[in-house]
Amino acid sequence: MNISILRSHNDEEQTYNVELENVTLLTLLNHIKTKIDPTLTYSHGCRSGVCGSCAVRVNGREQLMCEYKAQDGDTVEPVRNTRVIRDLVVDSSRVERFNRAGMAWSESSKEMNVSAEEMERIETQSDCILCTSCFSACPVYAANPDFIGPFALTRVWRYVNDPRETNSDAKMEAIQTNGIWDCTLCGACVPVCPQAIAPMQDIRMLRTKSGMLGYPDPTMNFGGGFDFGGWNF
Ligand code: FES
Predict the structure, then answer these.
(1) Whose alpha carbon is nearest atom 3 of ligand 1?
(2) Per-residue model confidence as pLDDT tens digits over 118-142
């Protein structure tokens, strides 16, 4: 099969012809690197969809290389919205910065028993593997490069719903700027998540919780009537 990969040294696609069928993209790239072109650079770790380090874009859509079955004619490029270090390897420091901006971690937690129902409530979001596929698919970065972003906000929702967390208020405060109100609710983050998490839905829930806590909704236009996408009332 033929596979094209965007190379960073000349910003052009390079096409490789590989005599392999029915293999994952990661297996294919390992073959190219060991048999054809040792300069090809990409990252991976667990090879089983757990570590999140092998996300790329295939034919314009985010995929994990260790799970995606390569097809003849595929075009592979690095994930978007972050700096490319080399070929398919990207700089993750921006992603870490957004996690910090949203306080998307457990800062201080108390010792207590957690019921099965309470654990179930945060189970889906706890499955995030930080692959950054949602971050790559998000169109908001074109308008706001400081947007805290879908996966960091999903993690915030996970921690503010954890009964052991003692600093939920600070997290809710942290996501009011460049956070939940900057999301356009377009849903581009949802289908690309390999863990079937729906960040857009979590952002909706964070908006509802913010309203209950008394935070204003800046997307509401109270000053000049109501704005319904071009129709002003
Ligand atoms: Fe770990 Fe693909 S190598 S998720």
Answers:
(1) 47
(2) 888 888 999 999 999 999 999 999 9
Does any ligand 1 atom lie closer than 6 A to the CB of residue 190? no
CA of residue 66 to ligand 1 center, whole Å: 6
Q: What pTM does this model have?
A: 0.88
Does 194 contact ligand 1 (Cβ within 6 A)?
Answer: no
Per-residue CA distances from 35 to 30, 127, 194, 212 (Å):
8, 35, 29, 59
**Domains of the chain: residue spans and CATH:** 2-90 (3.10.20.30), 93-212 (1.10.1060.10)
How far, in Å, CA of 77 to CA of 11, rounded?
10
| Positions in the chain whose pLDDT score sits under 70 | 221-233
Q: Is the Cβ atom of 25 under 6 angstroms away from ligand 1?
A: no
What pLDDT score does 233 carry? Answer: 29
Query: How many angstroms is it from 195 CA to the middle of ligand 1?
Result: 12
Sign for the pseudo-dihedral over CA of 45, 47, 51, 53: positive
**Ligand 1 neighbour 191 (Cβ under 6 A):** no
